[in-house]
Write a structure and sequence with these properties.
Belongs to the carbon-nitrogen hydrolase superfamily. NIT1/NIT2 family. This is Carbon-nitrogen family hydrolase. With 272 residues, the protein is of the alpha/beta class. It has one domain: 4-Layer Sandwich (Nitrilase/N-carbamoyl-D-aminoacid amidohydrolase). Helices cover 25% and strands 28% of the residues. The chain has seven helices and 14 strands. The strands form three sheets. Strands 5-4-3-2-1-14 form a six-stranded mixed sheet. Helix 1 links the parallel strand 1 and strand 2. Helix 1 runs parallel beside helix 3. The structure holds 2-oxoglutaric acid (AKG). 2-oxoglutaric acid binds next to loops.
Amino acid sequence: MTRVDVALFQIGYGDDESLADRVGRVCEWIREVERPDLIVLPELWAHGGFASSSWTSTAELLDGATVAQLSSVARKMHTWIHAGSIIEKADEGSARGPEDRGLWNTSVLLSPEGHVHTTYRKIHRFGFGEGEPRLLEAGHELALTDLDWGTESTRAGLATCYDLRFPEMFRKLGERGAELVLLPAAWPMPRVEHWQLLGRARALENQCWMLQCNTAGTHSGLEMGGHSQIVAPTGEVIAELGCDEGVLTAQLDLDMVQRVRADFPVLDDRRL
Ligand SMILES: O=C(O)CCC(=O)C(=O)O
């Protein structure tokens, strides 16, 4: 039986903490918890989910300071760390994307050896013409990987925040074998019920685990919604946080995906 311990860090922040201070604080905080098998952090927690006016100046390379510090934590703890997302800037001389911006909202999964294992550039940019669609390139590729736990492994799909509103993306991840989806976010408080409802829907309709890690606090004039949640392949929320900063821990029975799919084989009845 594949049982794994996960910890989602619902990071709270305001406008008064520098990126470097926040990264240092979060690395310390992670080191204080008992070693889980997988840690998940939120979207753009270092750069600020809505701090778009500073994204160009705080953007980092994939091997920049934020990822390097978290890689060192992953290696020392020998655990998987989904580092949430960063504002990634294009390396000198490399492709800058079709809109020539050279910036992406990129999620980074680190292996227990501390290596960048998988990256995912957010496909659906949020902002309706402002923020992400004005400043960042869109990602164009789905990202899936096998999380190796030692003797067993689990197929995981990566998605970020606003992607949650696009069910066809999660169906594609499911078709490519995803049993679990890692979803970091900076989802605002006024629409937190959408976050909860859509997360449950994506889990239920694809019969997969959803690990949704949101942000807390108020920055750039927006209150973040918190309410990080872990949803089972039945659509049941097995663990959730409130509005404040905190760690959400749970033990997942990953074999449940196959049991739920065998007991109620709704995915076999799709008309393609
Ligand atoms: O869809 C929403 O309501 C929030 C999405 C969002 O904040 C984001 O993708 O950064």
